[in-house]
Write a structure and sequence with these properties.
This protein has a six-stranded antiparallel β-sheet. The relative contact order is 0.10. The N and C termini lie far apart (48 Å). The chain contains five helices and 21 strands. The radius of gyration is 20 Å and the shape is globular. Helix 2 (26-36) packs parallel to helix 3. The longest helix has 16 residues, at 60-75. It has 312 residues and is of the alpha+beta class. Residues 1-15 form the signal peptide. Keywords: Glycosidase, Hydrolase, Signal. Pfam families: Glyco_hydro_31_2nd (PF01055), Glyco_hydro_31_3rd (PF21365). This is Glucosidase II alpha subunit.
């Protein structure tokens, strides 16, 4: 239903977590929260006469699993906000069937148990009670997908069997994309306003990636007065850069970039940050050779300014 509604312009869609009627088992309630956390509209809601089903009523283990799903949702709020910005301007669905992005791949046409958020996140929720594994189709010949939890790389155009536990929410980031997250745990989204960003740069086989970041005050219509930040992020030739997509817009934020995680990377000898005023500084980094993951620590880039980060 949500996939269909998105296609006709109603992107703000999500199921009543737990179902409006009847009573799911604790296991299926957890799975419903895990699924709902990756739908555009995320709300627990039920008929007045249904038994109470707040997350804390089913034991500490299930409460912890639900809390983790909610936290995953909150870390992705910058990406959700960007998708709604695009939906507002273009009508593109936030939650979309795979064939929207892969219309030449017949294997995507009938899939309705997995979906994309924007172009770059693929979600295959676990919805069967007692499930020990799911099979997800990863589209795109000559593309790669990265498990967002383990950072393991998988080739596209294959059916991938994924063993699951109760904590598993199979989600993959497309190689060739850059997704901004906020990783600090807070009590509400308003408490996250000034928190720093972490960029997840997932390289494609050509070792490039691109993405966007959109920021406004999150409350008013002042974006209509050009009060926002909209930047393109790109990684090409071992250089990560930020370009202003709305040079006539102006907005100030206290947030900054505190971490960059590059998936599918090679180990550099040094990493250099160059700001718009020509100043250069070295960035600390860690490299996990077993997973080809490069982590840049505390680069401190300004979200509203131009900069480059060169891997040498």
């Amino acid at each position: 239903m949500c996939l269909s509604l998105g296609l006709v312009g109603i992107s703000f869609c999500g199921a009543d977590v737990g179902g409006f009627f009847k009573t799911p088992s604790p296991e299926l309630l957890v799975r419903w929260y895990q699924t709902g956390a990756y739908q555009p509209f995320f709300r627990a809601h039920a008929h007045l006469d249904t038994p109470r089903r707040e997350p804390w009523l089913f034991g500490p283990e299930n409460t912890a699993l639900i809390r983790d799903a909610v936290r995953q949702r909150y870390t992705l709020l910058p990406y959700w906000y960007l998708q709604f910005y695009h939906a507002h301007h273009t009508g593109e669905p936030v939650m979309r069937p795979l064939w929207v992005e892969y219309p030449q791949d017949p294997a995507t046409f009938a899939l309705d148990d997995e979906f994309l958020i924007g172009r770059d996140l693929l979600v295959h929720p676990v919805t069967e009670e007692g499930a020990r594994g799911v099979t997800a189709y990863l589209p795109g010949k000559d593309e790669v997908w990265f498990d967002v939890n383990t950072f393991q790389k998988h080739n596209g155009a294959q059916n991938l069997y994924i063993p699951v536990t109760m904590s598993s929410i199979p989600v993959f980031q497309r190689g060739g994309s850059i997704i901004a997250r906020k990783l600090r745990v807070r009590r509400s989204s308003s408490c996250m306003d000034h928190d720093p960003y972490t960029l997840h740069v997932a390289l494609n086989p050509q070792r490039t990636a691109e993405g966007e970041l959109y920021i406004d005050d999150g409350h008013t219509f002042n974006y209509e007065k050009k009060e926002f930040i909209h930047r393109r992020l790109s990684f090409v030739n071992n250089i990560l850069s930020s370009v202003d997509l709305a040079p006539d817009a102006h907005f100030t934020t206290l947030s900054w970039i505190e971490r960059v995680i590059i998936l599918g990377a090679s180990k550099p000898s040094k990493v250099t940050l160059k700001t718009a005023d020509g100043q250069e500084s070295q960035i600390e980094f860690e490299f996990d050779a077993s997973m080809s993951v490069l982590t840049l620590r505390k680069p401190g880039m300004n979200l509203g300014a131009a900069w480059t980060v060169a891997l040498q």
